Amino acid sequence: MPSEDKKEIILGKNAERFSIPLDNLPAHATALGRLLGHWAMLESLLMGTLGLALRIDHKFARVLWQEFISTRGKITLLQRLNHTMGDNELKDELTQILQRAQELNAVRNGYIHALWVINSDHQVQRQSNAAPGDYKKVFRDSEIVTATDIENDVEKIATLSGDLLFWQRRISGGPPGMRLQPVE
User: Could you read off the pLDDT of 167-178 as tens digits, one per residue?
Assistant: First the structure.
């Protein structure tokens, strides 16, 4: 029988709410929210590119896309598929677009998989939760990040989405000679 002086512990009721620095940094939080939204749109366009490459509708492309956990792996799949297509101007453009997508995915990961802190100089600092590529280095370096830095990367993602949408419109609506055809 519990003693009278012991309080019943109910998870979610007794503890105080945990706060993170982003709770008090609306400009950073807003910029990160925009980054997530723009990345989701880019992923949807990449998914559509998978559908175009495989000549399947968006619903089936989405099923395939969701089976891969790694965004890097998804983009690599598109790069491999593009590599197998016949040579033309649109293939070269997609090669560049997909390379930019890989680079921006690494940027996105830097934001998403990070611990956000306020340093002793009252600056917002991003500390990566991912291990560095060099096995001899234990931690990645922390980085000072402004809301403007994040917004600049949002603009890069939005621009890439526009470029990919423009590419998709050209490949799906252009004359047959401009469409990518698999190498046989």
Answer: 999 988 754 444
The tokens for 140 are 């990645």
Q: Can you tell me the distance from the alpha carbon of 13 to that of 129, in angstroms, rounded to the nearest whole number?
A: 29
Distance CA 179, CA 85 (A): 10
Q: In three state form, how does the secondary structure of 76-139 look? A: HHHHHHHHCECCCHHHHHHHHHHHHHHHHHHHHHHHHCEEEEECCCCCEEEEECCCCCCCCCCC
Domain boundaries, the chain: 21-174
- Rounded CA-CA distance 79/76 in Å is 5
Tabulate helix, strand, coil % of the chain (nearest 5). 60, 10, 35
What separation in angstroms does the CA of 126 have from each of 33, 68, 118? 16, 27, 9
Over residues 32-57, mean pLDDT = 96
| Spatial separation of the C-alpha atoms in residues 52 and 50, rounded to whole Å | 5
Across residues 122-127, what is the average pLDDT?
A: 92
Which is more confident, 81 or 141? 81
Higher-confidence position of 60 and 86: 60
Residue 65, pLDDT score: 95
**30, 38, 26, 27: which is closest to 154 by C-alpha?**
38
- Separation between Cα atoms, residue 165 and residue 159, nearest integer Å: 10
Q: DSSP letters along 56-81, please?
A: --HHHHHHHHHT---HHHHHHHHHHH
